[in-house]
Amino acid sequence: MKVYYSPDVFESEKPVVATMGTFDGVHLGHQTILKRLKESARELQGESVVVTFHPHPRLVLSPQDGSIQLLQTLEERIVSMQALGIDKLVVIPFTLEFSNWSSEKFIQNILVSRLKIRHLIIGYDHQFGKDRNGGLSELRQAGPANHFTVEEIPAHLIQDNAISSTRIRKALECGNLKAAYEGLGYSYELTGRVVHGDHRGRTIGFPTANVELLSELKLIPANGVYAVEVIFLNQKFQGMLNIGLKPTFGENKRTIEVHLFNFNLNMYDEQLCIRFKHRIRDEQKFNSVEELKAQLRQDQETCFRLLS
Question: CATH says 187-307 is which class?
């Protein structure tokens, strides 16, 4: 898959079949649209092209909100699109100036002049342009004069399970991995770098890697203990992960710590990817370190059983 970080440099010698959207999470609803995109590109002997935006529009339009958390970074979105077999990805820088473009200007400047689309596929009730004033009717009106056709994916194909990035975010914030998986179609992931912590885990028999996320905008699931898979140096490991404040030790800084089973490699300053498989329990405060150690042994047995 070729990635263009500006529509100005896009080029194609084949008919362009495109879709557009933020695609945060590339969830099952998005995947339905992308599957049809690829089918249509094959039918026209063309290329499948996804138009997306970075940064997330809400970060530009409502920066004072500060509440937006992403299911995927741009880099993760690129990996997902590539895995799905998309031919080309166009990343449009989303700025305040761009946000004031009318739908007519977007159609002419991007879809027609830059991409020269032959066919456009959009999700049900897709809206775009300043004040979201563009939609299916505007696209179909512009199509004949500009030699492109428009196809809308019916609502029932992408909304049967009320799939949305917002709903998936809410599920993860509650620690509901099952609901998140049902929307995403894959296990939620965090990517980070291993940094030095307080090394307390080693003293109680459960050494942990402290993970610092690569993006502060990435959504972190609810506090608690999870059974996870970890990809490290292109190898897959199993383990248990804790997200929280470590109340037993009186701390108040939220951390992400993962203990890998049967593992003794040095991980400091290395990057790893965490895949959330099961939520074991809530974070809790213990009366003593011995009580905590007993619970950790039980958690480990639970994780072994679930991951096997």
Answer: mainly beta
- Compute the distance between CA of residue 230 and CA of residue 275 in angstroms, rounded to an integer: 6
Q: Tell me phi and psi for residue 69, to 5 degrees.
A: -125, 135
The average pLDDT across 271-294 equals 94
pLDDT at res. 41: 98
- How far apart are alpha carbons 230 and 118 in whole angstroms? 42
Give strand pairing partners of 221.
none
Q: Report residue 4 as tokens.
A: 């263009």
Q: Which one-letter amino acid corresponds to residue 231?
A: I
- Nearest-angstrom CA–CA distance, 81 and 233: 22
- HEC string of 169-213 equals HHHHHCCCHHHHHHHHCCCCEEEEEEECCCCHHHHCCCCCEEEEE
d(CA 108, CA 114): 8
CATH label, 2-166, candidates 1.10.287.130, 3.40.190.10, 3.10.129.10, 3.40.50.620 = 3.40.50.620
pTM reported for the whole predicted model: 0.91
Residue type at 192?
A: G
